[in-house]
Structures are given as structure tokens and as C-alpha cells.
From TrEMBL:
Lineage, broadest ranks: Bacteria, Bacillati, Actinomycetota, Actinomycetes, Micrococcales
Highest taxon, organism lineage: Bacteria
Name recorded for this polypeptide: Centromere-binding protein ParB C-terminal domain-containing protein
Species assigned in the record: Leifsonia poae
Length: 85
């Protein structure tokens, strides 16, 4: 079963859309890094590269703060971050 996020584009049930704010300079650097290295890094897509980056940071925090165990997840809303500048 697939969910439809955009017309003509199906997404597997184990994936979701994530929306967040990112500093414009960091976004530009990340896009450039993706464009220049996507083949050698075998990134399937921009989302794949971003997922790998998030996974690396989550793993670092689990190792540092939770004895390398996964944190317990829940579906509560996260508190809002600082306002967009």
C-alpha cells in the first residue's frame, strides 16, 4: 500500500513528509554537496542524502546520551522552535 503525497508520486507506507526550516546558506551548501557528490556517494535522491545526514546525527546522540540505545519514540507534537527570522 502506498500513500499519495503528490499527484503521480507514490511514497511507501514506511516514509513520511517532513517540513522544517533551514538556514539559506546551509541549504545552499547541502544542495551543492549533493549535486557534486550524489553519484560517488550513491544517493538515490536529495531525500536520501538528507535522511543519511539525520541518521548520522541521531546515531551520534544515541551513542553520546543513551548508551548507544535508541530513544523511545512517541507521536506527541514537538515544542515549537525559535521564530523564523
Amino acid at each position: 500500500m502506498h500513500q499519495q503525497n503528490h499527484p503521480g508520486h507514490s511514497v511507501p507506507d514506511d516514509r513520511t513528509t517532513v517540513t522544517f526550516y533551514l538556514d539559506l546558506e546551509l541549504r545552499a551548501r547541502a544542495r551543492a554537496a549533493y549535486e557534486h557528490t550524489r553519484v560517488v556517494e550513491t544517493d538515490d535522491s536529495w531525500s536520501h542524502m538528507i535522511g543519511k545526514a539525520v541518521s548520522a546525527e541521531v546515531g551520534r546522540r544515541e551513542e553520546l546520551y543513551n548508551q548507544s540505545h535508541r530513544f523511545v519514540a512517541d507521536d506527541r507534537r514537538l515544542p515549537p522552535g525559535r521564530p523564523v527570522r
